[in-house]
């Protein structure tokens, strides 16, 4: 099936409510991540590639990598437009990009994601057949962020660490910790006074393995260096020392 380009770019209008605004007067970073992922779900549902549609084929989507660059933060009561579009397949990754624009078309956010289709029986990545409509559902050579998010390093010797435990409010429909909850955990590693002066400027997270209710995750943090402005984080499941996620974060002024 061939799709019209006008259908391949979903555009959604939103207004920022007061409860999504942080102490610095700007929209919470993790809230913007939720808005982006909600737009992906809406687009997939529109073309019968959503959760319930994939379930019929005994497969399901899982977010593998997420890279976001913030150019400007919207504030309370601001109107924003979210745009999202699929970019096709890179190896096993189904790529999808996003932009958030202000009411007067300023670019606020650029983002890219890499998704896997997992087999419902094995939990392993499944290569979809070449004749599956998913392979036609994409736009070529149109990018918010062009490179595929790369691998992130292990942290052997952290500068500091903290621990969290997965609770009911962290779980999604698959009984795993929700993708954006990991981002909230990362943001909670930093003090209030930092957010009063700065905000997240660039962020990447790679999801390594699921976390379930009650599991403890040790978050290891490596400070930024003169040659690299990012702080690196790794979430390790305490029960088996398996990495749940790896991330990097860069703060800045806006």
Could you please describe the fold and organization of this structure?
- The protein is of the alpha+beta class and 254 residues long.
- It has 2 domains: 5-136, Thiol Ester Dehydrase, Chain A; 160-252, Hotdog Thioesterase (Thiol Ester Dehydrase, Chain A, Roll).
- 17% of the residues lie in helices and 36% in strands.
- It has 5 helices and 10 strands; from the N terminus they run H-E-H-H-E-E-E-E-E-H-H-E-E-E-E.
- Strands 1-3-4-5-2-7-10-9-8-6 form a 10-stranded antiparallel beta sheet.
- A hairpin with a 5-residue loop joins strand 9 and strand 10 (243-252).
- Helix 2 (29-46) runs antiparallel to helix 4.
- It is globular and about 50 Å long.
- The protein starts with a helix and ends with a strand.
Average pLDDT number: 93
Please compute the radius of gyration using only Cα atoms.
18 Å
Number of strands: 10
CATH superfamily of the largest domain: Hotdog Thioesterase
Helix vs. strand class:
alpha+beta
**Domain module count:** 2
Q: Which CATH top level class of the largest domain fits? A: Alpha Beta
List the helices and strands and how they pair.
Elements: H1 5-8, E1 10-15, H2 29-46, H3 51-56, E2 59-70, E3 79-90, E4 93-102, E5 107-119, E6 160-165, H4 179-187, H5 192-197, E7 199-207, E8 216-222, E9 231-237, E10 243-252
Antiparallel strand pairs: 1-3, 2-5, 2-7, 3-4, 4-5, 6-8, 7-10, 8-9, 9-10
């Amino acid at each position: 099936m061939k799709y019209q380009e006008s259908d391949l770019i979903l555009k959604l209008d939103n207004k920022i409510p007061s409860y999504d605004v942080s102490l610095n007067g700007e929209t919470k970073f993790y809230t913007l991540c939720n808005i982006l992922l909600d737009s992906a779900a809406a687009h997939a549902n529109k073309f019968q590639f959503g959760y319930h549609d994939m379930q019929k084929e005994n497969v399901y989507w899982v977010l593998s990598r997420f890279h976001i660059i913030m150019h400007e933060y919207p504030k309370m009561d601001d109107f924003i437009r979210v745009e999202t579009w699929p970019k096709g397949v890179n190896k096993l990754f189904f790529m999808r990009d996003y932009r958030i624009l202000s009411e007067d078309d300023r670019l606020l956010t650029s983002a890219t994601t890499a998704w896997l289709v997992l087999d419902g029986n094995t939990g392993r990545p499944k290569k979809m057949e070449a004749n599956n409509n998913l392979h036609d559902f994409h736009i070529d050579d149109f990018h918010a962020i062009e490179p595929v998010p790369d691998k992130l390093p292990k942290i052997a010797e952290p500068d500091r660490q903290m621990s969290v435990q997965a609770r009911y409010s962290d779980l999604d429909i698959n009984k795993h910790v929700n993708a954006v909850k990991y981002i909230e955990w990362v943001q909670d590693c930093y003090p209030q006074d930092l957010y009063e002066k700065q905000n997240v400027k660039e962020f990447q997270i790679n999801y390594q393995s699921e976390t379930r209710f009650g599991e403890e995750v040790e978050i290891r943090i490596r400070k930024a260096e003169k040659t690299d402005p990012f702080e690196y984080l790794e979430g390790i499941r305490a029960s088996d020392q398996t990495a749940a996620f790896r991330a990097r974060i860069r703060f800045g002024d806006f």
